[in-house]
Each structure stands twice: as structure tokens, then as C-alpha cells.
Design a protein that fits this description.
Elements lengths: L1 E6 L1 H9 L3 H15 L4 E6 H8 L9 H14 L14 E2 L2 H10 L6 H15 L11 H29 L8 H4 L1 H12 L2 H17 L10 H10 L1 H15 L15 H17 L5 E6 L3 H7 L8 E2 L1 H6 L1
Parallel strand pairs: 1-2, 1-4, 2-3, 4-5
Helix pairs in contact: 1-4, 2-4, 3-4, 3-6, 3-7, 4-6, 5-10, 5-13, 10-12, 12-13, 12-14
């Protein structure tokens, strides 16, 4: 069995905050060397990198911790010590590229942008000098905007759904006023229908990313696989949708902290993608997180035992 670890943002921050900057690369190399005999490796989540880069401003109180965390992530996810011959980085992109790969074996137009993020991570961390990020400050600001943009995409999907059932009007408290429809949708959640609806919405989103007419033929098996392997993602998506049904008006603002759940969805999507891709080679994706929502979404699925706390990872 081969294990591919995916650390969330807080896991890297927790590992890094107690370390001096001079210890970061040593720690990363040590972790990677201890993983190898156990047929394991860690993957660089681009979403986690983006989350950390968002704090790259010396006025940000979390800047130094995030700089150390990003440095740790960058060196930890190499195939070997930085600078050695044939060294590579093990990375996994956000969901927009994962779903286009799953359904159509194609990379989205975002992939080139994600590769640029890896380059920025290298520029910012390789010399262990926190001021090196300044050369890419323009792109780093764009990264923060991109994170907000992707949350906005999902918020827009919610708004389109509200408009469909509310005569074209966006009202985030609509379901509080329409108890009958709310109860019907909650029933769909309970009987599993909503998971399929959410899966279909992601399939439609995939067509939009690749500018394809919905729906392309011959996707039945891929859709069934998506329902099976991406069930943890769909469950978290569903629990977030349930907040909408209960009138969570704060969701009207994509900058609200409640939208950070979208980043959790990205981590789970990465684990689902790794599991599907490695299904015939006995590869397991392991998420390293203390996030309760991720643990809950993976419960009663094939990933139930594959969500570890940071302490469990370190103990093993």
C-alpha cells in the first residue's frame, strides 16, 4: 500500500510555528525521508499554497508563520532534497483542474496559472529570506483575488439556484419563508437525491470550464465513478448547501469566513482524485487535518479512516 499525504493549511502552520526559520528545511527533509521507507509521500496542495501566500504582507500578523509554513510545504513535497538531480515536486491542483481531468482527461486553462504559483513558492522560499516574496508581490495579490473569485463562482451557483425557485429574485432568506420547499429539499438530502444533483452541477461546471456543450455523450461510467469516489466532497458540499436552506444570510458575502468551507472542499477533492487515480495500484490518499467538517464529510465513506490529525501523522 502506498500513501499520499495531503496537509491542509493549518497542519503546515502548526508544524511551522514552533520552528525557527533555520529549522524549516531540515524538518521538511526529515519528514520526507521518514515517509519514503513507508512507501509514502506528501503532495503539494496548490490551494494550501494560495491560502498561505494570501498572508504575504509584512503588515499581516500571520505573515512569518505563513512564510515558514509555505517554506515547509515547498521542501516537504519535493521528491528528494532540493538541488539534487532529477528532483521534482509532487503537487495537486485545485478542483477546477481535477474535475476536467476526471471527466475528460483534459487540463483546464487554470493549470498554467497553478504552475505559476509553484514558481512563486520557489521564488519566495528557496533562500529562506522572507523579503524575497516582494519580487512577485503583484502576482501574490492576484492569488488572493483568485481565491475570492473561485468562492464567488460557487456563490453564484447558489444564487442561480435561488433565482430558479424564486422567480428570478436572489433572496438568501427565501427558504425560511417557503417551508414547504425547504422541507422537500431537506427530504432530498436525507434520501440521497441531493448528492446526485450536486454531482450533476459539478459535471455541468466541468463543461463550462472547457467550453463544451452540456451534456457530452458517453459520460455515464465517469459520472457513476464520480458519485462513488467523490462522495466525501459531495457530502461536504451538501452540508454547506443545507446552511442555505436554513437561511444563512452571511453566505451572501463571499468574503465571509463561512466560505472557508470551500477550501475544505478543495482538500477533500484532492484526496478523492488521488484515490480514484490510484484505485488499481493500491494508493491511499490521507488527509492531515484537525478540521471537524472534513472529518464529518469523510465519515461513513471509504475515506473514513484516511483523515488523520497532525499528531497521528507524526506518531506514525
Amino acid at each position: 500500500m502506498e500513501r499520499h499525504f495531503i496537509f491542509d493549511t493549518n497542519a503546515y502552520r502548526q508544524l511551522a510555528e514552533t520552528k525557527d526559520l533555520s529549522e524549516i528545511q531540515i524538518t521538511a527533509n526529515e519528514l520526507r525521508r521518514k515517509e519514503k521507507p513507508r512507501t509514502s509521500k506528501s503532495l503539494m496542495s496548490i490551494v494550501v499554497s494560495m491560502e498561505l501566500l494570501k498572508h504575504f504582507d509584512e503588515k499581516d500578523p500571520h505573515f512569518l508563520t505563513c512564510f515558514k509554513a509555505l517554506t515547509l510545504q515547498f521542501f516537504h513535497t519535493q521528491t528528494q532534497d532540493y538541488g539534487e538531480a532529477n528532483n521534482q515536486i509532487n503537487f495537486i491542483p485545485p478542483i477546477n483542474s481535477l474535475i476536467t481531468q476526471h471527466f475528460f482527461n483534459k487540463s483546464s486553462e487554470y493549470l498554467k496559472y497553478y504552475l505559476r504559483i509553484i514558481e512563486i513558492c520557489q521564488n519566495s522560499t528557496i533562500n529562506l529570506n522572507p523579503t524575497d516574496y516582494l519580487k512577485d508581490i503583484g502576482d501574490i495579490k492576484i492569488i488572493a483575488e483568485q481565491l475570492l473569485h473561485e468562492k464567488t463562482e460557487m456563490k453564484n451557483n447558489f444564487e442561480e439556484f435561488i433565482k430558479c425557485v424564486n422567480n428570478g429574485v436572489v433572496d438568501w432568506t427565501f427558504f425560511l419563508k417557503n417551508r414547504e420547499l425547504k422541507e422537500r429539499l431537506l427530504k432530498d438530502i436525507k434520501n440521497g437525491v441531493m448528492l446526485e444533483v450536486l454531482a450533476m452541477s459539478l459535471l455541468k461546471r466541468t463543461h463550462g470550464i472547457l467550453d463544451l456543450k452540456f451534456m457530452q455523450p458517453g459520460l455515464e461510467n465517469k459520472f457513476n465513478d464520480f458519485m462513488n469516489f467523490y462522495r466525501p466532497l459531495l457530502k461536504l458540499n451538501q452540508s454547506f448547501f443545507e446552511k442555505l436552506l436554513h437561511g444563512e444570510s452571511a453566505l451572501a458575502y463571499e468574503g465571509n469566513p463561512k466560505w472557508n468551507t470551500y477550501n475544505d472542499m478543495q482538500i477533500i477533492a484532492a484526496a478523492c482524485f488521488v484515490s480514484y487515480r490510484g484505485r488499481e495500484n493500491n494508493i491511499q490518499a490521507i488527509i492531515i487535518t484537525g478540521d471537524k467538517a472534513i472529518h464529518a464529510a469523510c465519515a461513513e465513506t471509504y475515506l473514513q479512516n484516511n483523515v488523520w490529525t497532525l499528531q497521528k501523522y507524526l506518531d506514525i
